[in-house]
Write a structure and sequence with these properties.
CATH architecture of the largest domain: 2-Layer Sandwich
Number of domains: 2
Oligomer: single chain
CATH class of the largest domain: Alpha Beta
Radius of gyration: 23 Å
CATH superfamily of the largest domain: Metalloenzyme, LuxS/M16 peptidase-like
Number of strands: 13
Distance between the termini: 61 Å
Number of helices: 16
Largest sheet: 6 strands, mixed
Order of helices and strands: HEEEHEEHEEHHHHHEHEEHHEEHHHHHE
Length: about 425
């Protein structure tokens, strides 16, 4: 019965209207900060926990350690093995998720109010006292290695890896957080213990909570859940030096369709022109079938099923990227069209109608992100990590609406650098 109820809650969580989300800042008695949205209408709580740093904290010679460590957090703690931990989670109708990214380790939890203390005590064991048993380490390592071997045959993964190497070089961003086959094979239990201490510490902790819990209740809950983590973790790496000079790099791969990625220097999230750049990207390649690149590459010429551009915001670097796939004998033309549209937008900017449609799309779609307690908790954690104001949710659409045609034209001329657009093509392209 509990299991059926948690499924129902997950699908039909009642949340406040997005524009009326009331975020409270909570500090626990032990000094742990969190953002909270109280929503008592359903006896259910969603937590999102992030540790800044992520796979970028891997020690030299241990690439992939943080990723593998995170995969082991629910594989054993104390006298519980993976099977016992999974059984206990199911009996409590608790849902836990563990993931690693270039900039963060993320933990999610969905628990019922009636089981909250027991469920979070179980979660605490996995976060504070994972045992990293050797049999689980060997099993999860094989899963990671299987994925890495598969990546060697995936044109998209190959293109992404080559582009990262070109853009970021020796910085941690320049290689996959999953590691390489060679590096993962040599990871030890001691590497897992070191990665855990380095990545999961209170000096890089961010928490978002939504649901049936008050600010007064949350403080002690935070201390019980996270208070025993180390105070400080491994040193953060420095910024990545990004200076993309442009060109076309071809990786020979036997496939009838080439994958092409493209990139240039990006824009910082704190830049006063960020929202103008956001609208610009929606017009150029981020607006789906309404974007210029889609119109020119797919609709008019039939060169690809899809072409997209996106602003990549990372803690230590910012890049403006895109991707397209096309037949080997047509990918050169697709690249030429992208270069031409990049240059045309830089020179002339968008039309008034394009800006109006892009703003309507961005503001209209924004409320759809707030489709559950978990989604709101995730957004709040991201806001904290990006140093956004606590009222950002209420003001975000105002910032988009404030962008003018003149703003977008100016930013297009300043940001877009068609002569420095770097392409990586994986396949057997003709004419490149």
């Amino acid at each position: 019965m509990i299991r059926a109820f948690i499924t129902c809650v997950t699908l039909f969580m009642a949340v406040p209207a997005w524009a009326e989300i009331n975020i409270k800042e909570v500090t626990s008695p032990g000094g742990i900060n969190a953002w909270l949205v109280e929503e008592p209408s359903i006896p259910f709580v969603a937590l999102e926990i992030r540790f800044k740093g992520g796979t970028s904290l891997d020690a030299e010679g241990a690439r992939g350690a943080t990723n593998l460590m995170v995969g082991l957090l629910e594989e054993g703690t104390g006298d519980m093995d993976a099977q016992a931990f999974a059984k206990a989670s199911e009996e409590l109708a608790a849902q836990f998720g563990y993931d690693s990214h270039a900039d963060a380790v993320s933990i999610s939890a969905r628990v019922l109010t009636e089981n909250r203390d027991e469920a979070l005590a179980l979660l605490r064991k996995s976060l504070v006292a994972p045992s990293f048993p050797q049999d689980a380490l060997d099993r999860v390592r094989e899963q990671v290695l299987s994925g890495l071997r598969s990546d060697l045959k995936d044109p998209d993964k190959i293109a992404g890896a080559r582009m990262a190497e070109i853009i970021y070089g020796d910085h941690p961003y320049g290689s996959a957080g999953e590691g390489t086959i060679e590096s993962v094979i040599h990871l030890t239990r001691e590497d897992m213990i070191a990665a855990h201490k380095g990545a999961m510490a209170k000096d890089r902790l961010f928490v978002g909570v939504v649901g049936d819990i008050t600010a007064e209740e949350l403080g002690p809950v935070l201390d019980a859940l996270l208070g025993d983590l180390p105070e400080t973790g491994a040193p953060m790496p420095g910024p990545a030096k990004v200076d993309i000079m442009g060109g076309v790099d071809v990786v020979d791969f036997d496939t009838p369709q080439s994958v092409a990625m493209f990139a240039q220097n990006g824009i910082d999230r704190d830049d006063e022109d960020f929202f103008a750049a956001y609208v610009l990207n929606t017009i150029l390649g981020g607006g789906g079938f309404e974007s210029r690149l889609m119109e020119e590459v797919r609709v008019k010429r039939g060169l690809s099923y899809g072409v997209y551009s996106y602003i990549v915001l990372r803690d230590l670097a910012n890049v403006y990227m895109g991707s397209v796939s096309s037949a080997n004998d047509r990918v050169a033309e697709a690249i030429e069209v992208i270069q031409d549209e990049w240059a045309l937008m830089a020179a002339e900017g968008p039309t008034e109608d394009e800006v109006a449609k892009a703003k309507a799309l961005l503001t209209g779609a924004y409320p759809l992100r707030f489709d559950g307690n978990g989604a709101i908790a995730t957004i709040m954690v991201s806001m904290q990590m990006d140093n956004m104001p606590i009222d950002y949710i209420a003001t975000r659409n105002d910032n988009v609406d404030a962008v003018t045609v003149e703003d977008v034209k100016r930013v297009a001329g300043e940001l877009l650098a068609p002569e420095k657009l770097q392409f990586v093509v994986v396949g057997k392209p003709e004419g490149l």
